[in-house]
């Protein structure tokens, strides 16, 4: 089922407003995720209209990226399950051993999946707790931001 684009737009903007690039077609997934995920770190968020995306996943992602001077992924990408089905399917094809899950978050380093949060790990948890989990994953896998440098999202 595809959702009304007008209803979904604010949910998209919660991520694009903090620096995520949306991928709406399989071609965009190949050009952005397929290429960018090979170098550095990429956070891919499979967005969704569900309550756990609204109350937990999107706020957790936003909070995890707020700490000034903390390590962060080099690239922030998103697809929207239930809206951009072909793009979501293509993004999931890059991780064939991972069952589909919406919402979900994938941290990829130099083309290799290094961290994953599935829907069952998001539901029922507080956004702050999820943000801490993500921040720990960034600290382990993402490069430090040099002192005095601006955000990677500017």
Describe this structure in words.
- The chain has 154 residues and is α/β, with parallel strands linked by helices.
- It has a single domain (5-141), classed as Glutaredoxin.
- Helix content is 42%, strand content 18%.
- The chain has six helices and five strands.
- The protein has a five-stranded mixed sheet with strand order 1-3-2-4-5, with helices on both faces.
- Helix 3 (51-64) crosses helix 6 (127-141).
- The longest helix is centred in the last third of the chain and has 15 residues, at 127-141.
- The chain is globular and about 40 Å long.
CATH structural architecture: 3-Layer(aba) Sandwich
Number of strands: 5
Number of domains: 1
SSE run: HEHEHEHEEHH
Mean pLDDT: 90
| CATH fold naming | Glutaredoxin
Q: Going across the major beta sheet, what is the strand order?
A: 1-3-2-4-5
Total helices: the number is 6
Largest sheet, strands/sense/barrel: 5 strands, mixed
| CATH class placement | Alpha Beta
